## 1
Amino acid sequence: MVLQVLVVAAGAPLLAGLMRQVRARLEGRAGAGVRQPWRDLRKLARKERIAPHGTGYLFRAAPPLLAGTTLVVAAAVPLVTAASPLDGVADLFAVAALLALGSVALALGGLDTGTAFGGMGASREMTVLALVEPTILLAVFALSIRVGTTDLGAIVTETASSPLSVISPVSLLAAVALAVVTIAESGRIPVDNPSTHLELTMIHEAMILEYAGPDLALIEWASAMRLTVMLGLFTGLFAPAGIATAGAGPIMLLVAVVAFALKVALLGGVLAAGEVFMAKLRLFRVPELLAGSFLMALLAVAASFFLA
């Protein structure tokens, strides 16, 4: 569990840098390098903490709460190993609740500023959240039916022991639904654009415009970790090759870390490459996309009962 947290905490900014570098290369630019996000976080952490006049504890509590919930999720989700001391208390529903808690905390922090941008971003974030969280629950629940438990470690262990079980209509529907909500949860194109500040399109950026210094560093770090965790969860559920199981030794854990890093880097590179050739959806089209992913997750649940 400690190893998972360390890998996610240290590797998340590198994943963000890798994705930026892939986009830069495909767009014909040199790019700032894979380690640039870590340099940005170090620069922000050294600056003075500034809060807008009139903000209260909600504004100040949002960044550490967002980062804290993400670290707990990184400890609970089977990324490097399927065996966790949190098994039994941190199942599918607890993980989804923790992800939602971080998003709600950031939305409340945006509202606490009292600005038009903060309120606009918070309302858009809640619209996306209302469709993303149920889809995550249904998509993973469809995979849990054949296992008989909502414990994520047990689901990944069962899939690792029988890899051919993922070749089914249930897994295909659940994978497509989870892929869409992973993009939405991490604020990537076509749902959101993390590199824009256009008021008609931004969602995540609108909530954090008033943050600066260490608070902004925490938010950026937590956002990178959430993307890493979601991609790691996706690979664990549908491609768990290399993941360590209960009783694994140090060598197997090292292999699992390398396998996790390679799989997440590959998915991140594919996601970044897709963003180059994809335009952001208009805002009123985003609920339609997320509703489609919710329908796919619902069909996956129904199919899991019929094909059981």
## 2
Amino acid sequence: MIQFDGSIRRMYIVLLAALLGGGVAFRVAVAWLDVHLKKEPVAIRESLATVPVTLGSWQKVGQEAALSEAMVEELGTPIYLTRHYALNGDPLQGIAEVHLAYYTGLIDTVPHVPDRCWGASGLVMTMPAHAIDIPVDLGAWGADPELTNQATGAPYRVAWTTDPVTRRRKKILLPPADEPWKMTVTVFQSPSRPGTRLFGAYFFIANGRLTPSPYAVRSLAFELTDRFAYYCKVQMNAELPDTPDAEERFTALAGSLLQSLVPEVMRCLPDWSEVERSGPRSDPVAAQH
């Protein structure tokens, strides 16, 4: 049996006491500072499947995509929607794929975005990711001066939608009015279709706020003082003829669709002003397609 002299035993006791004391002090500091290292989930209000099949001049075409179990695991969430819309119901006038994915309660995550994933599938990037203004008419949405975002102090924008069940008009809070509404756009080409360009545009709604950056999601949805956390990726894809005005045409199509889509997405997401005021129940979030 190995024996240690008294000085080594005393040093061991001192180090053990320091380790235990540090752990207790860390827990006390976290509680005193109201820091939440582990986020609790906040349930989505409505299934993403309740997003209307008609959005302004856009109408759903085809069947909604259902991912395999392996693809759902890769996506990182079972709460998603992938649907195609055609302008005036006619794919020849314009067709776009809408992809929504909802995440909640995660400590950290790396969102799947076109500029990271499409290249791995064999597509060639012809224009790097860049941020542009979301081409919607912000003036169509007012602001509610009585409901402000606690993180920014700015009032939430307000839109009105029709409840898909009751058919009643419903007030919907949109991301705050003081922050720029931008989305990230990347352009790719498929070697098998050299005459077209594939546009992928996305932004994130995280804890009631909006960002075009997959990196900024972490600072919005994982604020240390927030007990709850969620974010939703809103992505729109479209393949257009390779013409000099292809990006301008894509931007116009995106604005036309997003003007009606954004309020409907916010209707499904948690009311963050309510979370800020009282905090929701941390019920497990069921998979909703």
## 3
Amino acid sequence: MYIPTQKPQEREELYELLVSQIEHVLMDEDDAIANYANVSAVIMDIVEGLNWVGFYLYKNDELVLGPFQGKLACTRIKVGSGVCGTAFANLSLQNIPDVHKFEGHIACDSASNSELVIPIVVNGQGVGVLDIDSFHFNRFDGLEEKTFKAITSLIEKKLSK
């Protein structure tokens, strides 16, 4: 189980800073791929206990690997398959404390033990997902859910322009 090294107030402040940094990164850049790349880099750099952060983008009826930080990843995921495909199909956040117990989990990196996936929705349509993996079991709590929802909201706002 994951135990943060920061005190609760320090974690909240760190995550507020993370959202602020990402807002700043997105401010002057309109290229979606550049923004996805920088967002994944900032998250990987600031958030502890992660082994993979990236995006899967909806193209031709499947999710296709986008910019990421981490080891080699699955290139294509069918909608409805695995944690990412489920999050996208249902347009709902998926917080999986133990991916090995998730029926149909796609193991791109055997070191991943928990996963948080947030769909990205623009004008009512899914355009992709933010996928965050950790080698810790039960890594993601309500603070991470809130923080990464805020980050995907910033991305959605940018994409809707």
## 4
Amino acid sequence: MRLLLAAAVLAATLSTAAAELLAPSRMDRLFALPATIEASDDGARLVVDYQEMRDINGRDEIPERRAHATYVDLSVRRAQRDVTVQTPAGNIPHVAVGKAQGASFIVAYLHGQGGSRRQGADDFTFGGNFNRIKNLAAQNGGLYLSPDFADFGATGAGQVAALLKTYANASPQAPIFVACGSAGGAICWQLAQEGDLATRLGGLLLLGSHWDENFLKSPAFRARVPVYLGHGSRDRVFPVERQEAFFRSIRAASPGYPARFVRFETGSHGTPIRMTDWCDVINWMSDHR
């Protein structure tokens, strides 16, 4: 009986591990969320303990500019390319890390106002969290993209959609996860309206970004594409109360919808880019598609 029980536990463990898109790594502990202060909505809403002295000053060699070497693995630069791809929407410069063909998944980061493709490829800013997602992509057979685009309107959204479709055609089995920082959220919400792209989306990550009630009428919503909303409680650009209300509107419109809201207590506008646990969020999204 004990042998049968042990075998069952082992099989369940192996099954769970096999289901994870991103495998556990030695860096997971460094990038895990801080302690939970409050949880509700069956764990879909979390308030976590963000502390500037610990999470910026203790993590960065030069606060907000250069993470300590502990948080960075520069070997991933061997898998990184700064390229331009021709698409129906024009030539799109971007940074690509990992497998350009046959990728197991695709993650794209879309910068906010005043940013560029270089923001999402910077190894040392935001506590090394962009270096983290680059390494996760390279180590797990995925592809990470950080593109330039013209604006946050229809032109920019069209460019991003064209880029994603180009790479999706080269990796037909890969789910696409799109992370949007700040004003970049405008493109996330426009991509949700793309019917032929919505079925390929593995999830949308809004990092210190805004809301769009039209999402509730989108092909992505109908396809139950997972949504992660990370927000600092002291965000002066987009009030946290508005984003939390949007989270509740998603859950009310479709009970059990795969949406998460993480409030970084005392965090500011850029905190979710620094503190979001890519591995945890992407694996959660993968489990709900």
